[in-house]
Design a protein that fits this description.
Number of strands of chain A: 11
Radius of gyration of chain A: 13 Å
Mean pLDDT of chain B: 93
Largest sheet of chain B: 7 strands, mixed
CATH class of chain A: Mainly Beta
Mean pLDDT of chain A: 95
CATH class of chain B: Mainly Beta
Low-confidence stretches of chain B: none
CATH superfamily of chain A: Immunoglobulins
Structural class of chain A: mainly beta
Order of helices and strands of chain A: EEEEEEEEEEE
Number of domains of chain B: 1
CATH superfamily of chain B: Immunoglobulins
Low-confidence stretches of chain A: none
CATH topology of chain A: Immunoglobulin-like
Strand content of chain B: over 45%
Order of helices and strands of chain B: EEEEEEEEEEE
CATH architecture of chain A: Sandwich
Largest interface: A-B, 23 and 25 residues
Number of strands of chain B: 11
Shape of chain B: globular
Shape of chain A: globular
Number of helices of chain A: 0
Helix content of chain B: under 10%
Oligomer: heterodimer
CATH architecture of chain B: Sandwich
Largest sheet of chain A: 6 strands, mixed
Number of helices of chain B: 0
CATH topology of chain B: Immunoglobulin-like
Distance between the termini of chain B: 37 Å
């Protein structure tokens, strides 16, 4: 079946260090979304990428969608303690909210 | 504006019992989704309602799961009879009509089947 693999599963960084999580789909996606789930919370939408090779930035966060629309990455520059949580990528195959989620990357930031 | 609300937040039941989860989407959101996260694994799609109609229920594990959305407002997800492997966090999400740009998730129901 369709799968989205996300690595790493866990990442511990020192505050101020950079962080990257990667997603790879077994099939071509129509779009990819990123969500953040704080400890004890629920997934909160961060961004959606639709175009091949698209790059979007939100302050210290940079999101990329691969040329083949099968992979994506989220890069955080100079992490802060507020960045702690689990980051999920989720691939879409059409224009609905039926998404294929990656396993998530849990980020811990040491002050 | 109220977000997506789910009830209960936690439920502990014994194997063989019945549990009903409820989701109230954001007012005006025609699209309602159920997702499940089992044991720290990926969040998996269960089904999708557009108003009161089931648009896609391809993710429902088996016929022990029954979802309804009478009147196109709130939705319920019933598990009967519950099995151990049904334990996990059940998330509801909603979105406005037309092209989906993002899902608004509820806080989830943590279901533990003992």
């Amino acid at each position: 079946g369709q799968q989205v693999m996300q690595i790493p599963q866990y990442q511990h960084v020192q505050e101020g260090e950079d962080f990257t999580t990667y997603c790879n789909s077994s099939t071509t996606l129509s779009n990819i979304q990123w969500y953040k789930q704080r400890p004890g919370g629920h997934p909160v939408f961060l961004i959606q990428l639709v175009k091949s090779g698209e790059v979007k930035k939100q302050k210290r966060l940079t999101f990329q969608f691969g040329e083949a629309k099968k992979n994506s990455s989220l890069h955080i520059t100079a992490t802060q303690t507020t960045d702690v949580g689990t980051y999920f990528c989720a691939g879409g195959k059409g224009n609905t909210g039926k998404l294929i989620f990656g396993q998530g990357t849990t980020l811990q930031v040491k002050p | 504006e109220a977000g997506v609300t789910q009830f209960p937040s936690h439920s502990v039941i014994e194997k063989g019992q019945t549990v009903t989860l409820r989701c109230d989407p954001i007012s005006g959101h025609d699209n309602l989704y159920w997702y499940r996260r089992v044991m720290g694994k990926e969040i998996k799609f269960l089904l999708h309602f557009v108003k009161e109609s089931k648009q896609d229920e391809s993710g429902m594990p088996n016929n022990r799961f029954l979802a309804e959305r009478t009147g196109g407002t709130y939705s319920t997800l019933k598990v009967q009879p519950a099995e151990l492997e049904d334990s996990g966090v059940y998330f509801c999400a909603s979105s406005q009509e037309s092209i989906v740009e993002k899902l608004f998730f509820g806080s989830g129901t943590q279901l533990s089947v003992l």
